[in-house]
């Protein structure tokens, strides 16, 4: 901090902190400009051309918006896959964020074996590149569930009967059963979020809880009045991360469709148009979600 004061002695404390934040994000912004912006601009150009591979390289013919028209109106699988991917992301988003927040609170408590528990929940993130993907492709868990004596309970039949007995709404029952059946996917997609929440919980000043305890606040009241408001910036961060991660997840069939369209389908031009539409949808969803959630984000003045 002394070095910063010497470098910018006339800057206010708020501007110094803003400058520190900008310097911290500068490598990420520079990386996006260098490695992403050029490729994305090239993809946009390709999306307005018919690309053919010739002896000297690509041969481009300008076709205006025909590639977008083909992707949105002619192709029968692109829109359906895009809608299915978006719906799955919207349904998984609150569950992943809530689950990771709950597990982070549990792992932040002091108990024997806490380090091992943290490793267990973060392990799928490390192994997702190879081991977990191979297990999912081999579908070993389905075979285990089919041979289990409790197959009815494990696949949601018992839960369905229980929720029906409690007279839950039909849509709520279908959503809960769907989430229960996808618990392995939710756990494997929550590792990074748990780590971020855990770091945020450990950064909350203990003096706040001590003051609340002196005032006679219960643990439940401390959660709603201290923990949750202090964690809202990280909730927004994890929501944005989860949206991006879900659109790039291995189970997402849309990138596979775009790749197959380029190499096995109608060509690179239509594939580029699909990629541009896909990127635009992701950016639009991020802008909407960020704009809505930012109204409830609490930043502590220090």
Structural class call reads mainly alpha
Total count of domains: 2
Note the run of SSEs as H and E. HHEEHHHHHHHHHHHHHH
Helix amount? over 70%
**Termini, distance in Å?**
15 Å
Q: Any low-confidence stretches, pLDDT <50, length ≥5?
A: 139-155
CATH superfamily of the largest domain: MetI-like
What is the count of helical runs?
A: 16
Question: Could you name the CATH topology of the largest domain?
Answer: MetI-like fold
CATH class of the largest domain: Mainly Alpha
Q: What is the number of beta strands?
A: 2
> Largest sheet, if any?
2 strands, antiparallel
Radius of gyration: 24 Å
Mean pLDDT: 78
Strand content: under 5%
Shape, principal axes of CA atoms: globular
* Strand order in space, largest sheet: 1-2
CATH hierarchy: architecture of the largest domain: Orthogonal Bundle
Question: What do these coordinates show?
Answer:
The chain has 302 residues and is mainly alpha-helical. It folds into 2 domains: 1-43, no CATH class; 48-296, Orthogonal Bundle (MetI-like fold), CATH 1.10.3720.10. The chain is built from 16 helices and 2 strands. A two-stranded antiparallel sheet has the order 1-2. A hairpin with a 2-residue loop joins strand 1 (49-54) and strand 2 (57-62).
Task: Lay out the secondary structure.
Layout: H1 2-7, H2 13-47, E1 49-54, E2 57-62, H3 66-74, H4 78-107, H5 114-127, H6 131-138, H7 140-147, H8 151-154, H9 157-165, H10 170-181, H11 183-188, H12 191-202, H13 206-214, H14 219-247, H15 254-263, H16 268-293
Antiparallel strand pairs: 1-2
């Amino acid at each position: 901090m002394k070095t910063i004061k010497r470098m910018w002695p006339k800057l206010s404390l708020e501007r110094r902190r803003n400058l520190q934040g900008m310097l911290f994000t500068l490598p990420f912004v520079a990386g996006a400009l260098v490695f992403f912006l050029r490729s994305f601009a090239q993809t946009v150009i390709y999306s307005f051309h018919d690309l053919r591979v010739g002896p000297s390289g690509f041969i481009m013919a300008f076709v205006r918006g025909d590639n977008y028209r083909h992707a949105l109106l002619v192709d029968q699988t692109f829109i359906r896959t895009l809608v299915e991917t978006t719906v799955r992301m919207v349904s998984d988003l609150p569950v992943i964020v809530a689950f990771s927040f709950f597990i982070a609170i549990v792992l932040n408590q002091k108990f024997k074996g806490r380090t091992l528990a943290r490793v267990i929940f973060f392990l799928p993130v490390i192994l997702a590149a190879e081991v977990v993907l191979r297990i999912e492709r081999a579908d070993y868990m389905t075979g285990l569930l089919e041979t289990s004596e409790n197959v009815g309970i494990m696949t949601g039949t018992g839960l369905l009967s229980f929720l029906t007995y409690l007279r839950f709404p039909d849509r709520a029952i279908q959503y809960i059963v769907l989430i229960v059946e996808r618990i392995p996917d939710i756990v494997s997609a929550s590792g990074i979020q748990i780590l971020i929440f855990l770091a945020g919980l450990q950064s909350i000043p203990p003096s706040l809880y001590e003051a609340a305890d002196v005032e006679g606040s219960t643990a439940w009241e401390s959660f709603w009045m201290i923990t949750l408001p202090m964690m809202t910036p990280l909730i927004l961060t994890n929501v944005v991360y989860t949206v991006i991660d879900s659109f790039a997840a291995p189970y997402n069939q849309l990138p596979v469709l775009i790749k197959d369209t380029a190499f096995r389908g109608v060509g690179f031009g239509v594939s580029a148009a699909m990629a541009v539409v896909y990127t635009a949808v992701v950016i639009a969803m991020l802008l909407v979600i960020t704009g809505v959630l930012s109204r409830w984000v609490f930043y502590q003045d220090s």
